[in-house]
Amino acid sequence: MRPLKLRDVTIPNRLWMSPMAQYSAGPDGRPTDWHLVHYGARATGGVGLIMVEATAVGPAHRTTSADLGIWNKEQAAAHRHLTSFIAGRGAVPAVQLLAAGRKSSHQVPWEGKGQNGAVRVADGGWETFGPSAVPFGDLSVPREAGQADIDEAVEAFARATRLSHQAGYQAVEIHAAHGYLLHQFLSPLANHRTDDYGGSLQNRMRLPLRVARAVREAFPAEKPVFVRITATDWIAGGITVNEATAFAKELAAAGIDLLDVSSGGAVQDREARTPAQDGVHVPYADTLKKATGLAVTPVGPVGDLSQVGELVAGGRADAALIGRALLRDPYLVLHGRSDDEMSWPRQYRRAL
User: Fold this and answer.
1) Annotated catalytic residue: which of 23, 39, 180, 284?
2) Contact criterion met (CB below 8 Å) for 68 and 53
3) 234 Cβ partners below 8 Å, 6+ apart?
4) CA-to-CA separations, 37 to 32, 123, 194, 325, 328, in angstroms, rounded
5) Is 331 noted as a catalytic residue in this protein?
6) Averaged pLDDT of the chain
């Protein structure tokens, strides 16, 4: 597949790695050898862009104490080891920036109740906050964010963006989906405010758009900024595709370069579950692409890699973010190529 150029960054192909949390950082939030091997293998395996997992913009913005972070220079320096290896294998290093909001201070997925298990302050957790004092499932009731919290979140994203540049990332993605802080402000399911940050769509977009503008200003003009956007909450009273379209148009005006289109996560799966079907987000990505003119990539399962080529050729998407299939096979992209063994690393060609 042909390369894709976004600003001055050229991505060698349209098969990209989706950000998937590993919950394997050290207590300091820095990448470990696990991350180097995990991401390095996929870069070696021919993926065009490696989107490093949701990385917290501040200690209170983590989902768990094992999250990656990028809120200080020491973390940025540790990330540079990772980005250098990824770039050295020919892939573009990118990072997803996260503020968790009310979906914060919970257990890692394989312990206790996992992401539904709150970690209280007395047990090593931290105070959570969100747009309103409305909990997510069984997690702690968040404190309603004040103006100082909102302003701090904007600055935290800007600081993390500057550090991401220093760390060698060639693209950053703002996580505004899956029920995390920016999605919480967008969705009436979590946002019950009556001030300038709640009520109308214009008000609910205020914080995410402030973050988008701050991130765009903080990142070099030659590098692209993505946003993971929610197309629908899959439940009455939540975000609709019409609201997502209005938000996407505002993101385009703010200088965002690509929409990473997903859905769901505002409430627990038992209340509203995203349909488990191949290409579930392709129609939404197509809609947002036509409405904004931005590059788009749908999240979620794709039946086989040939479908990605068809989507790109048909103008419905510009790339595909591959998730669990790359967890199963880090060399998925190489296996899917029709050319000869020269696509593989020379160290492995004796096996072909």
Assistant:
1) 180
2) yes
3) 263, 264, 272, 273, 274
4) 9, 31, 47, 17, 14
5) no
6) 94
For residues 120 and 122, what is the distance between their CA atoms, to the nearest angstrom?
A: 5
Mean pLDDT of 287-316: 87
Q: Which CATH number fits domain 4-351: 3.20.20.70, 3.40.50.1370, 2.60.120.200, 3.40.710.10?
A: 3.20.20.70
Cα(first)–Cα(last) distance of the chain, in Å?
Answer: 22
Count CB atoms within 10 A of the CB of residue 239: 26
Look at the block and give the residue holding tokens 């294998």: 89
- Distance CA(14)–CA(6), nearest Å, equals 12
Tokens of 55: 């990385």
Residue type, 349: R
How do residues 259-300 score in pLDDT, each as one tens digit?
999 999 888 766 767 766 777 889 999 999 999 999 999 987
Residue 257: both structure tokens together: 């370069």
Integer Cα distance of 186 and 287 in angstroms = 19
Residue 16: other Cβ atoms inside 10 A: 26
pTM strictly above 0.85: yes
Extents of the domains making up the chain: 4-351
- Phi/psi at 15 (nearest 5 deg)? -105, 110
Assign 3-class secondary structure to the chain. CCCEEECCEEECCCEEECCCCCCCCCCCCCCCHHHHHHHHHHHHCCCCEEEEEEEECCHHHCCCCCCEECCCHHHHHHHHHHHHHHHHCCCEEEEEEECCCCCCCECCCCCCCHHHCECCHHHCCCCCEECCCCCCCCCCCCEECCHHHHHHHHHHHHHHHHHHHHCCCCEEEEEECCCCHHHHHHCCCCCCCCCCCCCCHHHHCHHHHHHHHHHHHHCCCCCCEEEEEECCCCCCCCCCHHHHHHHHHHHHHCCCCEEEEECCCCCCCCCCCCCCCCCCCHHHHHHHHHHHCCEEEECCCCCCHHHHHHHHHCCCCCCEEECHHHHHCCCHHHHCCCCCHHHCCHHHHHHC
